[in-house]
Structure formats: C-alpha cells, structure tokens
Amino acid sequence: MWPSSAGRDTMGGMPKANASNRTNVKRKKSQRNASKRGMSSIMKLRIAVIVVAAVVVLSVVFAFFWPGWAVRKAATPSQLHTEVTSATPTIKASPLPKDASSLLSAMPDSVANFARTSAKATTEWKASEPVEEYSVVYSNGTESEDATLIVGQWATSATAQQQYDSLNGASTGDQLATGNIKVDGKTTGSYVVKQAGDGKAVAIWKNDTAVFKISGPTDSVETLYEHFPL
C-alpha cells in the first residue's frame, strides 16, 4: 500500500516540489539570458562611446599636426566674384605695337568678357626703377566698367618684391583676399585684393620678377584678376 498522500501535494503522479524546481530553473535561465542581453547592450554602448571618443581625439590630433586639415581655406577671387560672366568679349582687342617687348606681348588680347583697348608705356613706377612698365586698359564695352592694368618687370625677384610690398602698403582699403602664387608647385609670389572705395577695388600681385596692379570697379577687377593668365 502506498503511503498516504496527506500532507503532500502531488501533480500528475509526481510531487509538486519537482515542478516548482523546474519553474525556478526556467526563471533563473530567463534571468541569466536577460542579464546577458543587458550586458550585451551595455558593452555595445561602451564600444560606441569609445569609438566616438577616438574620432574626436584623432580630429584634434589632425587639426594640430596636419595644417589646414580642419581649417576652411580663405576665400579666393573666384569665390568672391560669383556673378557669371561671358567668356567672349563683345568688342575687338586693339593690336599691340609691332615692336612690343616680350612683357607687353604677354598681355592677353582678352580676359573673360574684357578685351584690351589700349596699351602704352608708362612711368608710374619710375621711382622703383623697373626695367620696363606698361599701362593696359581692358573693357567689356561699357566705359564705366573699364579697368586699368599696370605691369612692370624688375631685374631681380627681390626688387620686384620690394615694389609689391610698397604697393600693398599704400593700399589701405579692406582686404578681400590674399595668398601665394604658385607655378609648378613652387611659390613665385603673392597676391592681395583690397577695396578702394566708391565701389572700386585693386588687385596687386607679384610673379617672379613681374608686378601687376589692376584697378577699377570691384566686379571688373575681380573678373580680370580671376581669369588673368599671368
């Protein structure tokens, strides 16, 4: 005879204590799985934080040890002059003298929508003793928008630099742009563009032994400087 079941709970012929144990085991497994998932989420969050921190640190390092990496470049004349202009002038260029020197012959017939309307020798920079110097006018057909180019050449790059520095110092308007001129990766000079008041501007640049200065309405100066080939 089986012992009396009094005082003992049974379920399906097995003690209820065993069913309770199985429930506890399942509960513990579920808790462990939830804990693992929680730990996994925490680890992922920590990894994400570490990656972000690493990116920030690398950005700072590059900014200090790789000049210009995190610095926006200064505006160039092409950025300053956003108005779209025709690349073809509406007027014909005036011919150069038959005995024009190499320097004068290098002055282009046209620049963007401007054409050369006159070219002559000048003595504007005589005090600095250039080898030669010329005054060249460029026009787009509207006289009020004409711009004048003065170009001179010196015996050495050093004396040309002195003239550039003198012209730059004499121009006291707000600076619109500045930078270096490079030819085949080598720095051959500098440029500066400044306001000259009353809607006008001046662009000055030095390239090796030659110095250039364009003056006139701001839009005209920026267009000519932006497209000038020398």
UniProtKB/TrEMBL annotation:
Domain of life: Bacteria
Biased composition annotated in UniProt, kind: Basic residues: 24-35
Region (Disordered): 1-37
Protein name, entry field: DUF4245 domain-containing protein
Organism of derivation: Bifidobacterium magnum
Upper classification of the organism: Bacteria, Bacillati, Actinomycetota, Actinomycetes, Bifidobacteriales
